Amino acid sequence: MYVPKHFVDDDQDAIRQLIQERGFATFVTVADGAPFATHCPLAWKPEGGAHGTLFGHVAKANPQWQHFDGKSDALAIFHGPHAYVSPSWYGQHP
Protein backbone atom coordinates (compact mmCIF):
# COMPACT_ATOMS: atom_id res chain seq x y z
CA MET A 1 0.00 0.00 0.00
CA TYR A 2 1.40 3.38 -0.95
CA VAL A 3 1.73 5.73 2.02
CA PRO A 4 3.32 9.16 1.45
CA LYS A 5 6.27 9.75 3.80
CA HIS A 6 4.48 12.53 5.68
CA PHE A 7 1.65 10.10 6.61
CA VAL A 8 3.89 7.23 7.80
CA ASP A 9 3.46 6.45 11.49
CA ASP A 10 5.97 3.99 12.94
CA ASP A 11 4.80 4.54 16.52
CA GLN A 12 3.72 0.98 17.39
CA ASP A 13 2.06 2.08 20.64
CA ALA A 14 -0.08 4.65 18.77
CA ILE A 15 -1.01 2.06 16.15
CA ARG A 16 -2.05 -0.45 18.83
CA GLN A 17 -4.09 2.22 20.61
CA LEU A 18 -5.88 3.07 17.34
CA ILE A 19 -6.72 -0.61 16.81
CA GLN A 20 -8.00 -0.98 20.37
CA GLU A 21 -10.10 2.21 20.17
CA ARG A 22 -11.41 1.62 16.65
CA GLY A 23 -11.37 -2.14 16.27
CA PHE A 24 -13.68 -2.24 13.25
CA ALA A 25 -11.75 -2.87 10.03
CA THR A 26 -12.00 -3.71 6.38
CA PHE A 27 -10.17 -7.02 6.15
CA VAL A 28 -8.74 -7.74 2.69
CA THR A 29 -7.36 -11.00 1.32
CA VAL A 30 -6.66 -12.18 -2.23
CA ALA A 31 -8.12 -15.28 -3.83
CA ASP A 32 -7.32 -16.35 -7.38
CA GLY A 33 -5.73 -12.95 -8.01
CA ALA A 34 -8.79 -10.94 -6.96
CA PRO A 35 -9.16 -8.90 -3.75
CA PHE A 36 -11.87 -9.93 -1.30
CA ALA A 37 -12.95 -7.64 1.55
CA THR A 38 -15.11 -8.02 4.65
CA HIS A 39 -16.01 -5.42 7.28
CA CYS A 40 -15.47 -6.98 10.69
CA PRO A 41 -14.37 -6.26 14.25
CA LEU A 42 -10.77 -7.20 15.02
CA ALA A 43 -8.90 -7.34 18.32
CA TRP A 44 -5.12 -7.08 18.77
CA LYS A 45 -3.17 -9.38 21.08
CA PRO A 46 0.58 -8.92 21.74
CA GLU A 47 1.36 -12.63 21.29
CA GLY A 48 1.92 -14.47 18.04
CA GLY A 49 4.19 -12.47 15.81
CA ALA A 50 6.67 -9.63 15.48
CA HIS A 51 3.79 -7.13 15.84
CA GLY A 52 1.30 -9.33 17.68
CA THR A 53 -1.79 -10.95 16.21
CA LEU A 54 -5.18 -9.71 15.05
CA PHE A 55 -8.17 -11.85 16.02
CA GLY A 56 -11.61 -11.66 14.49
CA HIS A 57 -14.51 -13.63 13.14
CA VAL A 58 -16.26 -13.98 9.80
CA ALA A 59 -19.39 -16.03 9.21
CA LYS A 60 -18.91 -19.54 7.86
CA ALA A 61 -21.19 -18.49 4.97
CA ASN A 62 -18.55 -15.88 4.07
CA PRO A 63 -16.08 -17.60 1.71
CA GLN A 64 -13.23 -15.39 2.93
CA TRP A 65 -12.54 -17.79 5.84
CA GLN A 66 -11.12 -20.18 3.24
CA HIS A 67 -8.35 -17.64 2.49
CA PHE A 68 -6.86 -18.00 6.00
CA ASP A 69 -4.04 -20.43 5.35
CA GLY A 70 -1.39 -18.85 7.60
CA LYS A 71 0.88 -18.22 4.61
CA SER A 72 -0.89 -15.56 2.55
CA ASP A 73 -0.69 -11.85 3.26
CA ALA A 74 -3.76 -9.93 4.34
CA LEU A 75 -4.56 -6.25 4.91
CA ALA A 76 -6.61 -4.79 7.77
CA ILE A 77 -7.73 -1.19 7.26
CA PHE A 78 -8.94 0.48 10.46
CA HIS A 79 -11.36 3.38 10.04
CA GLY A 80 -12.57 6.29 12.10
CA PRO A 81 -15.77 6.32 14.17
CA HIS A 82 -18.40 3.75 13.23
CA ALA A 83 -21.71 2.34 14.40
CA TYR A 84 -23.66 -0.85 14.02
CA VAL A 85 -27.15 -0.68 12.51
CA SER A 86 -29.26 -3.50 13.89
CA PRO A 87 -31.67 -5.23 11.51
CA SER A 88 -34.34 -4.55 14.14
CA TRP A 89 -34.14 -0.87 13.14
CA TYR A 90 -35.42 -1.65 9.65
CA GLY A 91 -39.12 -1.41 8.88
CA GLN A 92 -41.19 -4.53 8.62
CA HIS A 93 -41.54 -5.86 5.08
CA PRO A 94 -44.75 -7.49 3.88
What is this structure, in a nutshell?
This protein is mostly beta strands and 94 residues long. It has one helix at 12-21, and strands spanning 24-31, 34-45, 53-56, 75-78.
Structural description of this entry:
- The chain has a 4-stranded antiparallel sheet.
- The model has no long low-confidence stretch (mean pLDDT 86).
- A hairpin with a 2-residue loop joins strand 1 (24-31) and strand 2.
- It has 1 helix and 4 strands; from the N terminus they run αββββ.
- The N and C termini lie far apart (46 Å).
- It has 94 residues and is mainly beta.
Which descriptors would you attach to this protein?
94 residues; mainly beta; 4-stranded antiparallel β-sheet; 1 helix; 11% helix; 30% strand; globular
How do the helices and strands follow one another from N- to C-terminus? Answer: HEEEE
The class by helix and strand makeup works out as mainly beta
Distance between the termini: 46 Å
β-sheet strand percentage: 25-35%
Helix content: 10-25%
Task: Give a quick account of the main beta sheet: strands, pairing sense, barrel closure.
Answer: 4 strands, antiparallel
Provide the spatial order of strands within the biggest beta sheet: 3-2-1-4
Number-wise, the strands total: 4
Q: Can you tell me the residue ranges where pLDDT is under 50 for at least 5 consecutive residues?
A: none
- Specify Rg, calculated over alpha carbons: 16 Å
Number of helices: 1
Q: Looking at the structure, what is the overall shape?
A: globular
Average the pLDDT over all residues and give the rounded result: 86
